[in-house]
Hints:
Number of helices: 11
Number of domains: 2
Oligomer: single chain
Helix content: 25-40%
CATH superfamily of the largest domain: Response regulator
Structural class: alpha/beta
Mean pLDDT: 80
Number of strands: 10
CATH topology of the largest domain: Rossmann fold
Strand order of the largest sheet: 2-1-3-4-5
Low-confidence stretches: 1-11, 243-249
Shape: globular
Largest sheet: 5 strands, parallel
Radius of gyration: 20 Å
Distance between the termini: 55 Å
CATH class of the largest domain: Alpha Beta
CATH architecture of the largest domain: 3-Layer(aba) Sandwich
Order of helices and strands: EHEHEHEHEHHEHEHEHEHEH
Amino acid sequence: xxxxRVIDPPHPRGRLLIIDDDPDFAQVIREMLAPxxxxxxxxxxxxxxxxxxxxxxxDLIIIDAILESSIEGIELAHEFRSMASLRHKPxxxxxxxxASSQFPQQFAAMLDREWPFDGYLEKPVDQxxxxxxxDHLIPTDPKRAxxxxxxxxxxLVVDDDPDQQxxxxxxxxxxxxxxxxxxxxxxxxxxxxxxxxxxxxxxVMMSTPTEGLDFAYELRNLxxxxxxxxIIVSGMMQSPEYPRQFEKIxxxxxxxxxxxxxxxxxxxxxxxxxxxxxW
Length: 279
């Protein structure tokens, strides 16, 4: 009698849903991630993506910005954020939207709403960067997840206004978060050499009108810091030079998980921070 030993498949690192109208690209991502233990489900239009996202137990959803219309994927992400079951689901935007002839004009209008994504990668996707984002957004190691849960999240506030620093401390501290404050990107750069933040709250207009955005793009190009989420907290849209003053810098992939317009009510600030760091 022959004996067949059944070997269970390895426990997946995570279940992902890709919503992209390019099935070839979606299949490339599936094949890229399969050796690393990720299960990938594919939807090639908005309606199927909505149905699978609502009924499936996915750890993260990847969405292309440009589906049938130029910003349909972003609208779908906003729809997910309005649904109780998906409100806190990690969403990753993967797109060529910055190559659109309507960019950044159409993107400036999007800043009037809460940015619904936890990260952004430009097509063609770099495998190493994608894996870093997934590792950051999906805590797969039980020991690492437990360590995260037992540790007070550390938030770095980069703002040249002492009053804004005080608001952040008084809002986030009592909620159980640790807050460190610096006045500019140079101080932030030095601080990050010896500390690890779970989140960065970043002003834009400091020593230069676009210092915060310049620093955010710099962080996105540093392998160890690229996955750290950023919330832009700024009054940039109140500038008389907006959006002309920022067109050049906005003509690149958006580097932040959220955008909040000053003044930000403390309740809203705490709510958005909790969403981003899953606290």
